[in-house]
Automatic annotation (TrEMBL):
Residues 174-278 form the Fe2OG dioxygenase domain. GO terms for molecular function: metal ion binding; oxidoreductase activity. It comes from Coniella lustricola. This is 2OG-Fe(II) oxygenase superfamily protein. Belongs to the iron/ascorbate-dependent oxidoreductase family. Gene3D superfamilies: B-lactam Antibiotic, Isopenicillin N Synthase, Chain. Coiled coil: none annotated. Keywords: Iron, Metal-binding, Oxidoreductase. GO terms for biological process: small molecule biosynthetic process. The keyword Oxidoreductase applies. Pfam families: 2OG-FeII_Oxy, DIOX_N.
Length: 350
């Protein structure tokens, strides 16, 4: 496979059973192969996509002080601005050359999810400089994408020969996190082995829906040919990929595939992924049809909260250890304690 399939999703909403079955079969084939495909005619208008992308660009154009006023570190529930080089998803690489802004369901501090410290659940932070339009635009897009995620899970259920509503309970009270992402252009003389926009990784949740701007950089690993496949942006289309929860759920019959971002375009790249984790208390265990009766499941049951929280902690922990190592090195060179700032972290970008 030299490219990621582009699937017409409108068949899901049609009254033509043959067209819907063709859609299900195309999705099944993609999930069995590498868990990646693109969809068009999915019901999220191009105007809404363009509006949220414009909002993302406005946010990242703010000065550092305005962005830091809504820093993710202000919360314990993963909402707000994440500065450059805060995460390492690929072991052995340097912190990633991207900055982001986390948005989720805008719940209040008296909501049970917040009170019980459920996964990524709490009020959003909003940049004062951009006013209510930024909030309205991003939340409208967020809600449309969560609804589309529910429809995608219905197609996934059908692709596994399950009832269409098999995943409805998983989506009842589902946690989904949206990230506005900005990748500065990578220096042409950077070390390709050490630095990434996002390092090679698999996603943590069930499914991811990605809106790309016109600048490419997303690459998907094709183990069959041992090559990286470039996912060229397609206007109006969304990239869909399965995460580790879905792979676990299907006993690895469906793939959670490795992907990365390397921005060698010389231009600013923007993208907006929505990560659907599901209801934090939902127990994920092997779907019976995904193994033979005499076979053991490859993974024990786990709640969404347990699985996704552990993955987040690991990736951000790598970046913290990296920074701590640099701080220790600087201190030993100077003979005194020192603080590592963002600008002091070496940049080596592919």
């Amino acid at each position: 496979m030299s490219q990621i399939p582009l699937i017409d999703f409108s068949a899901f909403y049609s009254s033509d059973p043959a067209a819907k079955q063709k859609l299900v079969e195309q999705v099944r084939a993609s999930c069995l192969y590498n868990g990646f495909f693109q969809i068009k005619n999915h019901g999220v208008p191009l105007e809404k996509q363009e509006a949220v992308m414009a909002s993302a660009k406005k946010f990242f154009a703010l000065d550092a002080t305005e962005k830091q006023a809504v820093a993710k570190e202000n919360t314990a529930w993963n909402r707000g601005y994440e500065m450059l080089r805060s995460q390492i998803l690929e072991e052995g690489t340097q912190p990633e050359l991207k900055e982001g802004f986390y948005i989720g369901d805008d719940i209040s501090t008296d909501h049970p999810y917040f009170i019980n410290k459920k996964l990524n659940s709490g009020p959003n932070q909003w940049p004062a400089a951009l006013g209510s339009e930024f909030k309205d635009t991003t939340m409208s897009y967020y809600k449309s994408m969560v609804a589309l995620g529910g429809d995608l899970l219905k197609v996934l259920a059908l692709s596994l020969d399950l009832e269409e509503d098999y995943f409805v309970g998983f989506m009842d009270g589902a946690v989904a996190t949206m990230r506005l992402l900005h990748y500065p252009p990578q220096p042409p003389d950077a070390d390709a082995k050490l630095t990434r926009g996002i390092g090679a990784h698999t996603d943590f949740g069930a499914i991811t829906l990605l809106l790309q701007d016109e600048v490419d950089g997303l690459q998907v690993w094709d183990k069959h040919s041992s090559t990286w496949i470039d996912v060229k942006p397609t206007k109006g289309a969304l990239v869909v990929n399965l995460g580790n929860l879905m792979a676990r759920w299907t006993n690895e019959m469906y793939k959670s595939n490795v992907h990365r971002v390397i921005n060698k375009s010389g231009k600013e790249r923007y993208s907006i992924p929505l990560f659907i984790s599901g209801n934090p208390d939902y127990m994920v265990e092997c779907i019976p049809v995904c193994k033979k009766p005499e076979e053991q499941a490859k993974f024990p049951p786990v709640t969404v909260q347990e699985a996704v929280s552990a993955a987040y902690a690991e990736s951000y922990g790598r970046a913290q250890l990296y920074r701590a190592g640099l701080e220790k090195t600087d201190a030993s060179h100077a003979g005194t304690s020192s603080t590592v700032t963002e600008s002091s972290i070496p940049v080596a970008v592919a």
